[in-house]
């Protein structure tokens, strides 16, 4: 304090420069370079703030961002030196090795995929062949069943024609015999019924409660025999014939007596066996 009060009237000396005036130009340049003055900083590369890699161009930095997912980049004054011939060769060799490894992995993956696709193709081909074989087998079975039905129908038709021929032949023979007997003055002999049932002594034949019928089939085969109540109709007999032989239909079957020759109409089919005079027994032809 005493020093300040004693020197208060004296002038304040000028501040001296940090750099002495007697330094030469070389020293000044060195000092400026040391404190960082004089030159502007220039960005010479792009640096990834996340991994520290340096890139020459924005295209390289963008490619790195797409590959790595890094998003933080900054400009850098670090200059990337060009590669020497040895470094270029080493880099090219490294890239070729990576590419070869990548191609080998891709070929392995392609082989695996092709093998799986081939297995699927073979399985699909086997399934198609199996389906085709099943269809061919079903078609063959269907054709065989159809041929069998045709043979059965053809046999039935031949049997029906043969039976009709026999009936016509028998009718012609009987007619010729009757005409011959009339010419010679002799009465024709009546044919005996194929099936005869002796009536009970206490009951008249027409009042018998049961009627025994033998039905011959025009389609061939053994005759059908059954005893019906006398009050049953011929429609009941037709239903029974249709149930015994699938070649007949109850709506189209026709019943007739062989001797004397008589074909029953649909109205007569509704009458009872007694009303049609078939009691106690009779022989019918089903066509």
UniProtKB/TrEMBL annotation:
Q: Which UniProt keywords apply?
A: Cytoplasm, DNA-binding, Metal-binding, Zinc, Zinc-finger
Question: According to its UniProt record, where is this protein located?
Answer: Cytoplasm
What PANTHER family does the database record attribute to this sequence? UBX DOMAIN-CONTAINING PROTEIN 1 (PTHR46340)
Q: Where is the composition biased (Basic and acidic residues)?
A: 64-86, 169-192
Q: What is this protein called?
A: DNA-binding protein
Domain C2H2-type intervals:
46-75
Domain UBX per the UniProt entry, residue ranges? 206-286
User: Which Pfam families does the annotation name?
Assistant: UBX, zf-C2H2_OTU1_C
| Any GO BP annotation | negative regulation of protein K48-linked deubiquitination
Molecular function as annotated in GO: DNA binding; K48-linked polyubiquitin modification-dependent protein binding; zinc ion binding
| This protein's GO CC annotations | cytoplasm; nucleus
Which Gene3D superfamilies has this protein been placed in?
A: Phosphatidylinositol 3-kinase Catalytic Subunit, Chain A, domain 1
Region listing for Disordered, in residue ranges: 1-27, 62-86, 103-132, 169-209
């Amino acid at each position: 304090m005493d020093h300040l009060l004693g020197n208060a009237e004296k002038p304040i000396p000028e501040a001296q420069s940090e750099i002495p005036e007697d330094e030469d130009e070389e020293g000044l340049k060195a000092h400026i370079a040391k404190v960082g003055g004089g030159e502007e900083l220039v960005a010479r590369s792009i640096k990834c703030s996340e991994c520290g890699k340096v890139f020459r161009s924005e295209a390289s930095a963008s490619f790195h961002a797409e590959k790595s997912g890094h998003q933080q980049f900054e400009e850098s004054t670090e200059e990337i030196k060009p590669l020497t011939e040895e470094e270029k060769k080493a880099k090219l060799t490294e890239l070729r090795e990576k590419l070869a490894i990548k191609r080998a992995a891709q070929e392995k993956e392609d082989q695996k995929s092709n093998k799986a696709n081939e297995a699927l193709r073979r399985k699909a081909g086997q399934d198609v062949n199996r389906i085709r074989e099943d269809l061919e087998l079903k078609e063959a079975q269907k054709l065989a069943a159809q041929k069998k039905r045709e043979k059965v129908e053809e046999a039935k038709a031949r049997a029906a024609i043969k039976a009709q021929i026999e009936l016509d032949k028998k009718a012609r023979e009987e007619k010729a015999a009757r005409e011959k007997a009339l010419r010679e003055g002799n009465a024709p002999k009546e044919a005996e019924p194929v099936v005869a049932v002796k009536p009970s002594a206490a009951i008249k034949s027409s009042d018998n409660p049961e009627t025994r019928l033998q039905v011959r089939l025009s389609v061939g085969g053994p005759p059908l025999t059954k005893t019906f109540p006398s009050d049953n109709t011929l429609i009941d007999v037709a239903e029974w014939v249709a149930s015994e032989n699938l070649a007949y239909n109850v709506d189209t079957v026709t019943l007739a007596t062989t001797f004397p020759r008589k074909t029953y109409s649909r109205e007569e089919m509704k009458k009872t066996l007694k009303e049609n005079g078939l009691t106690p027994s009779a022989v019918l032809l089903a066509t």
